Amino acid sequence: MSDAPVITVDGPSGSGKGTICSYLADRLQWHFLDSGALYRVLAVAAQRQHIDSNNEAALVNLAEDLRVEFKVTGAGSLVAVLLDGELVTDAIRTEHCGHAASVIAPIANVRKALLARQRAFHKAPGLIADGRDMGTVVFPSAVLKIYLTANVEQRAQRRYKQLKEKGLSANLHQLCAGIAERDARDSTRTEAPSKPAKDAIIIDTSTLDIDAVLANISELVRREIPSLSNTGG
Ligand code: C5P
């Protein structure tokens, strides 16, 4: 196992994890694991093969043999996602796919099947790991664990803005309900529920703009990993 440092960033969708992780991966020039993308790709693959979310054996087989690639396309965090050689970077980002991912994510053997793939990202010079159970299960000995949170309304607003900016239609009320439903499923499941690790630093981003969150996290990185001098912020 690599002894390269790991920073975990966990939390619900819309809490700002993606932006923070991209920033850190770029600044530190570390590897980046978007574990949510893995669950999303699995959901797309299951849908394509008409595998029902109740069919645990087939889902586990699929997870074990999943032909997924993450290709770094630019600065550390810009990644193209391929399933069976086909680009699915945008296809996995829909609300529908996030929902489908959260329906299969509670299955313990599916999570187990994806564990080694996630740990394979742990390489020098270091790793930024984004997800729900990065600090609790996948990388329990991470050097810095951050848990980002924000209230549901704020997270729905952010998602609404993102969709509108992409020219896509969106309904704030539906987004809010969908996020709340996914939160509940992710945080109440028995296996690796979404929650802060005991030693995580919790940051509520509800009332903070992104620059304030970045400054806060840069300071944490400087304090917790003094050997890194190029964290910027
Ligand atoms: O983070 P993202 O919204 O892309 O994750 C999609 C879904 O995948 C989550 O709602 C959750 O159910 C699942 N997931 C998980 N464990 C992770 C990352 C994501 O269960 N480490």
Give me some keywords for this one.
3-stranded antiparallel beta sheet; alpha/beta; binds cytidine-5'-monophosphate; Rossmann fold; globular; single chain; 5-stranded parallel beta sheet; about 45% helix
Structure write-up:
By secondary structure, the chain is an alpha/beta fold. The protein has a single domain (6-216), classed as 3-Layer(aba) Sandwich (Rossmann fold), CATH 3.40.50. The chain contains nine helices and eight strands. A five-stranded parallel β-sheet has the order 2-6-1-7-8. A three-stranded antiparallel β-sheet has the order 3-4-5, with helices on one face. Strand 4 (79-83) and strand 5 (86-87) form a beta hairpin. Helix 2 (35-48) packs across helix 4. The protein is globular. The mean pLDDT is 93. The structure holds cytidine-5'-monophosphate.
